[in-house]
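lol forgot to send this yesterday, sorry. struct tokens for the thing we talked abt
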């Protein structure tokens, strides 16, 4: 009766496994009914006649598509390496209710596979040592290998902590291609992999982790990879790549969840990557053209979103190297929650995304439907550091959920650019590329010791009730920054522009920042202090399109600042302080002879010689200065730029005909810009006829 029961169990097992794997009926079935490690047994139907070692020997010697099964749960302690699985189609599987343990006992690799279509399922595999490179090795040109529903690593006692940590041992190792395969080499799904140096290491190409060979990636196919030093490490230079890592829980590693080293073309999506000691995902040493989340040219798919949170350093760290042959570049990060769980609650990494050490031309987001939500991180949302150049940050929600209004502020700035990094682009030429950067606890965007020609395009930096606490954009000890450039702003509401809006202190701050361009794509509204604050900064060109309703001045210039060319080219609305404030002391009248010095040379604004109400105006300004004329509309509540004229180079006399604009002198105000591009404060409406009226009040 016992023999009949075992036979029925074997038949049912084979039928079920055929359904799960798509295998045809086996040529032969070898049933392991001994726990020792003897070889050379016949593996017949006789009792006590088949060890695992002997069953593999028989399968290798027979035609393809053999099955190695087990009569019951048992622990098999190896005394040496098992025979290499060379025969195509071999299946080694334990029944789900069985408890079949393969204890390497520090002897050697458990399974080495070089035949196609080999499957290993339902085993507990453990007991490696530093003399064992991997528990399972796939070598040669083997394809369509399936490793599923196994416990790989420490013999589990029901806790996340490891009973015996197997340092220096990899769970599953795919060797480099030899030759390159025509199809998928390896499927890994439904496993628990833990307590190893590396959980999975596909050094070759075409491995699929978290999906079966039918394309299913549900709960049954999910791998749990935890408590290793590294969860998954992909390396291999030119041979590496085209892996799919999806639908996995990768957590509680000592160091990284996923590490990609000098490998290309890996697709990482649909994973939960959390509570790892350093980085959730680490790309380094020439990692290139890898995709994290949505595909570069694909549409948004919520199923491709990775949830990357609670990691000790960065959610995603992208690091280059100094060698030009190993540039980490062209990696694409989109659709992910970084610092956020699936329910939208915050569980921050230290940093959301960190680019360092010469990482170039990487994409963080693309369009708003595929942007990342980067929030709740304890420091900055995105950092570009260490000479990392030409990266794009577009279409992201940084400091908020994708609704743009739910507070998930980062502990530092939304975006920080440091360490001589240059030519990076924040936002894009199209409205769909705009970032939303709100609720962050320092600045929305902070450039510190950065390189030149970093560009800030269409982006929402702050919003009503959603301020970045310290300020919108800060440029510190950084030259040649481009703000509001690279696109044409058409929406008068500002929402297809660079909108710096309702931040805690200044909208834009320049400190020791020279040669900055703030261009016509910039709208600056309702910030808690000045719209633009310029301090100890020179030779900046300030031409925002809209400026208004800021608590302080529209534009203030302070400290050792010179050559700041200020032209509000469209409209400047009512601010709490003057439209332009030199020296931060509010409106200050001219001084006779303009002999004083200070920010922008405390240049005198133009004065008029025309009677009140004139339409044909004349006056004086500094010799050869450009006189810019603005109209103030009391009804609309803003100054609008009309045009400019040049004062005579010797006498300083200028004339301007207001009649073609339908404006009288009483509605006009004026600034002067000298040859060194210092711009003055704006005159009172109607201009000022003489200096003497102001002398008893204040002298600059």
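and heres what i got for the seq, position by position
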């Amino acid at each position: 009766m016992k023999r009949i029961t075992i036979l029925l169990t074997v038949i049912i097992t084979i039928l079920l496994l055929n359904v799960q794997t798509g295998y045809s009926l086996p040529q032969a079935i070898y049933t392991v009914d001994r726990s020792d490690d003897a070889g050379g047994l016949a593996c017949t139907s006789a009792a006590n006649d088949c060890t695992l070692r002997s069953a593999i020997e028989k399968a290798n010697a027979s035609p393809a598509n053999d099955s190695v099964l087990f009569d019951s749960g048992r622990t098999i302690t190896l005394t040496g390496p098992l025979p290499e699985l060379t025969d195509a189609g071999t299946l080694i599987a334990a029944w789900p209710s069985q408890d079949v343990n393969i204890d390497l006992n520090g002897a050697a690799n458990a399974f080495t596979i070089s035949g196609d279509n080999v499957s290993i399922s339902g085993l507990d595999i453990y007991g490696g040592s530093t003399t064992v490179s991997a528990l399972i090795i796939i070598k040669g040109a083997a394809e369509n290998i399936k490793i599923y529903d196994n416990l790989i690593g420490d013999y589990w006692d029901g806790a996340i902590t490891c009973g015996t940590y197997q340092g220096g041992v990899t769970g599953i190792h795919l060797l480099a291609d030899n030759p390159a395969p025509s199809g998928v080499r390896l499927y890994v799904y439904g496993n628990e992999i833990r307590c190893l140096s590396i959980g999975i290491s596909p050094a070759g190409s075409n491995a699929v982790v978290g999906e079966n060979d039918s394309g299913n990636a549900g709960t049954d196919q999910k791998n749990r990879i935890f408590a290793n030093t590294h969860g998954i490490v992909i390396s291999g230079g030119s041979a590496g790549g085209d892996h799919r890592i999806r639908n996995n829980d990768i957590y509680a590693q000592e160091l990284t969840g996923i590490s990609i080293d000098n490998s290309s073309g890996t697709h990482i999506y649909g994973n939960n990557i959390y509570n790892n000691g350093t980085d959730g995902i680490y790309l380094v040493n020439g990692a290139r053209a890898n995709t994290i989340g949505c595909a570069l040219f694909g549409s948004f798919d919520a199923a491709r979103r990775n949830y990357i949170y609670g990691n000790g350093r960065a959610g995603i760290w992208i690091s280059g190297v100094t060698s030009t042959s190993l540039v980490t570049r062209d990696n694409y990060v989109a659709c992910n929650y970084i610092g956020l769980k699936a329910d939208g609650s915050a569980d921050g990494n230290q940093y959301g995304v960190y680019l360092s050490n010469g990482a170039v031309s990487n994409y963080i987001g693309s369009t708003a439907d595929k942007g990342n939500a980067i929030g709740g991180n304890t420091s900055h949302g995105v950092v570009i550091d260490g000479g990392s150049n030409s990266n794009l940050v577009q279409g992201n929600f940084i400091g908020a959920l994708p609704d743009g209004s739910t507070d998930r502020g980062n502990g530092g700035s939304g975006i920080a650019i440091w360490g001589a990094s240059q030519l990076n682009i924040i936002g894009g030429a199209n409205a769909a590329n705009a970032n939303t950067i709100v609720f962050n606890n320092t600045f929305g965007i902070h450039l510190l010791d950065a390189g030149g020609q970093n560009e800030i395009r269409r982006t929402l930096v702050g919003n009503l009730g959603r301020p970045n606490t310290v300020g919108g954009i800060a440029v510190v000890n950084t030259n040649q920054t481009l703000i509001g450039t690279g696109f044409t702003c058409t929406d008068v509401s500002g929402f297809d522009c660079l909108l710096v809006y309702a931040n805690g202190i200044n909208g834009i701050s320049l400190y020791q920042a020279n040669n900055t361009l703030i261009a016509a794509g910039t709208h600056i509204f309702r910030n808690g202090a000045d719209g633009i604050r310029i301090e100890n900064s020179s030779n900046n060109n300030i031409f925002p399109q809209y400026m208004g309703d800021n608590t302080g001045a529209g534009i203030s210039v302070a400290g050792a600042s010179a050559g700041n060319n200020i032209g509000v080219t469209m409209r400047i609305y009512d601010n709490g302080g003057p439209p332009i404030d030199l020296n931060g002391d509010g409106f200050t009248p001219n001084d006779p002879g303009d002999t004083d010095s200070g920010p922008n040379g405390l240049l005198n604004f133009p004065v008029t010689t025309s009677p009140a109400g004139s339409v044909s105006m004349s006056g004086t300004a500094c010799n050869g200065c450009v006189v810019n004329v603005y109209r103030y509309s009391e009804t609309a509540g803003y100054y609008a730029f009309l045009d400019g004229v040049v004062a005579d180079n010797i006498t300083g006399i200028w004339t301007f005909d207001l009649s073609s604009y339908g404006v009288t002198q009483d509605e006009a105000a004026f600034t002067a810009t000298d040859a060194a591009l210092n711009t003055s404060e704006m005159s009172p409406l109607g201009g000022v006829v003489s200096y003497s009226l102001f002398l008893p009040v204040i002298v600059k």
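The two ends are 110 Å apart (CA to CA). anyway ping me if u want another try
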